[in-house]
Specification:
- The chain is α/β, with parallel strands linked by helices.
- It has two domains: 8-185, Rossmann fold; 195-279, N-(1-d-carboxylethyl)-l-norvaline Dehydrogenase, domain 2 (Orthogonal Bundle), CATH 1.10.1040.
- The chain is built from twelve helices and eight strands.
- The protein is globular and about 60 Å long.
- The structure holds nicotinamide-adenine-dinucleotide (NAD).
- It comes from Candidatus Segetimicrobium genomatis.
Length: 293
C-alpha cells in the first residue's frame, strides 16, 4: 500500500477513544467500520458522534452536508470479520489488557486483507507484543491518540524493530489526513514521549509538595503562570483520576520490583480514602457535586 492510500478503515473498540478515532477517519473521507463486542457501546458511540457533529455544524466548523456525509461513512458492527474484511488500515482501541489485544490481533491477522496495517492505540502496550502474534510484524505499529481524539491534535506513531518504513509512512499520512499532527518515535519506550514528560513533571510536583517546599495550590499556580500550562499538575491529577495515577505506579512497581516506582505517599493516602479527584467530588481539590436534574 502506498503511504496515505488508506481509504477503508476499521476501528476496533467503540469506547472513549474508538468512537472519536472512527469519526476522525470518516471526516478524513475513509469508509470506516466500527467494531465493538457490545451493541450498547456501538449505540452510545453513534449517539455521541451525531452530537459531536451537530456541535461542529452549530459552531460553523463544517457544513451540515459534510457532517451528514462523514456520519454516512461510518458502519457499525459487532462482527470483526465484517469490519476487517476490506480494511486497508485497522486501529485497535479495545480495553488495555494484553491478552485481549493479542486475541484481537490474532483474529485481525486472519481476517484483514494481507496489505492492511494493524495499529494499536494502546497507551502502554508496545506493538511488538502484538506483532508477535501475527504473521505481518512489518505492518504493525502503535498509533497513540490523545483523549479526546476529536480535540487533541497529537498522535504518537511508534514503530518496533520490524515495522517497515512504508507502515510508519502510512500511519503518519493517515494521522495527517485526519487533521492531526503526528510525531514518530523510532524506538519503543514505555510511556512514549508525552506520558514520560508528564510523569517527570508529576513526580517533581509531588516531591516539592511532600518536601514542604510549597502548597499544592501554589505549585499549580507556579506551573500555570510560569510555564503557561493550562492546568497545574495537581489539577491534572484530579482531572485524570488519582486512582489512575495510583494504578499506573503500582503496575510499574509490580513490573520492576523497584520500590522507587511505588506511588507517592500523598497519592496512596488519597487513593485509600477514595479521594480520586473530580469523579468522586474530592481529590487535591473539592468539587461541588452537580445539582441533580
Ligand atoms: N482513555 C484515554 O484517555 C486513552 C488515551 C489514549 C489511549 N488510550 C488507549 O485506548 C484504548 C481504549 O481505551 P478507552 O479509554 O477507549 O477504553 P473504553 O473502555 O472506553 O473502550 C473500550 C471498548 O472496547 C470494547 N471491547 C473490548 N474488547 C473488545 C473486543 N475484543 N473486540 C471489540 N471491542 C472490544 C469495549 O466494549 C469498549 O466499548 C486502550 O488501549 C487505552 O490504553 C486511552
Amino acid at each position: 500500500m502506498e503511504p496515505g492510500a488508506a481509504r477503508r478503515l476499521c476501528v476496533v473498540g467503540a469506547g472513549t477513544m474508538g468512537h472519536q478515532i472512527a469519526m476522525l477517519g470518516a471526516l478524513a473521507g475513509c469508509a470506516t467500520h466500527v467494531v465493538d463486542v457490545r451493541p450498547d457501546a456501538l449505540e452510545r458511540a453513534q449517539v455521541a458522534n451525531r452530537a459531536h457533529m451537530a456541535r461542529w455544524v452549530e459552531r460553523g466548523r463544517l457544513t451540515a452536508q459534510d457532517a451528514a456525509d462523514a456520519l454516512g461513512r461510518l458502519r457499525w458492527t459487532t462482527r470483526l470479520e465484517e469490519g476487517a474484511a476490506d480494511a486497508d488500515f485497522v486501529i485497535e482501541a479495545v480495553i488495555e489488557r494484553l491478552e485481549d489485544k493479542q486475541a484481537v490481533f490474532t483474529a485481525l491477522d486472519r481476517l484483514a486483507p494481507a496489505h492492511a496495517v494493524l495499529a494499536t492505540n494502546s497507551s502502554t502496550i508496545r506493538s511488538s507484543f502484538l506483532a508477535s502474534v501475527t504473521a505481518r510484524a512489518d505492518r504493525v505499529c502503535n498509533m497513540h491518540f490523545f483523549n479526546p481524539p476529536l480535540v487533541m491534535e497529537l498522535v504518537e506513531v511508534v514503530v518496533h524493530p520490524a515495522t517497515s518504513e512504508a507502515t510508519a509512512a502510512a500511519a503518519l499520512a493517515l494521522a495527517r489526513r485526519m487533521g492531526r499532527t503526528p510525531v514518530l518515535l523510532r524506538k519503543e519506550i514505555s510511556g512514549f514521549v508525552v506520558n514520560r514528560i508528564l510523569a517527570a513533571i508529576m513526580d517533581e510536583a509531588l516531591r516539592l509538595y511532600e518536601g514542604g517546599i510549597a502548597s499544592f495550590e501554589d505549585i499549580d499556580i507556579a506551573v500555570k503562570k510560569g510555564l503557561r500550562h493550562p492546568m497545574g499538575p495537581f489539577e491534572l491529577m484530579d482531572f485524570n483520576g488519582i486512582d489512575v495515577a495510583y494504578n499506573v505506579r503500582m503496575q510499574r512497581y509490580r513490573e520492576t520490583g523497584d520500590e522507587l516506582q511505588k506511588p507517592a505517599r500523598s497519592i496512596e493516602e488519597r487513593y485509600g480514602r477514595g479521594e480520586w479527584g473530580r469523579k468522586t467530588g474530592k481529590g487535591w481539590y473539592a468539587y461541588p457535586r452537580p445539582e441533580p436534574s
